[in-house]
Amino acid sequence: MGEVVAIRGAELLDNADVPTVVMFLGMLVAACVMGVLLTSGSALWTLIAPVFVPMFLLLNVPAETTLALYRIADSGTNLISPMSPYFAMALGFLQRYRKQAGIGTLMSLTLPIALSVLTAWTLLFLVWWGIGIPLGPGAPVR
């Protein structure tokens, strides 16, 4: 099923002449939404990789670049995922000092940080990609 979605998605994006940066941002948004709902990074990658890696490969984007985008999205949403065990622990610490604090209070405190992290990593990646610096030995960004 992932292969069909990847091939059809690549055809759709190619026929629509979607710019590469827009595809990157679309993947980041999709991964962020999924990241808030799933606790396990490996489970998230297991859902994302079979679709986005082949889709982006068909659009001449290396698999390493797709992985870098996934890591950006995952790191940005780890802080705000209510499914995370650390979220419950942080809520416990917060309630120790603010008795009336709840999930909404914790989310309102951590969301600006998560968005800042996500924005900073995304901008750094786009500059990195724009310059064309390799992601590692033998791992081109383009």
Automatic annotation (TrEMBL):
What InterPro entries does the record tag this protein with? Answer: AbgT (IPR004697)
Any one GO BP annotation for this protein: p-aminobenzoyl-glutamate transmembrane transport
Q: Transmembrane region positions?
A: 20-38, 45-63, 106-131
A matching Pfam family: ABG_transport
Q: Which UniProt keywords apply?
A: Membrane, Transmembrane, Transmembrane helix
Any one Gene Ontology MF annotation carried by this entry is:
secondary active p-aminobenzoyl-glutamate transmembrane transporter activity
What name does this protein carry?
p-aminobenzoyl-glutamate transporter AbgT
Query: What is the source species?
Result: Prauserella sediminis
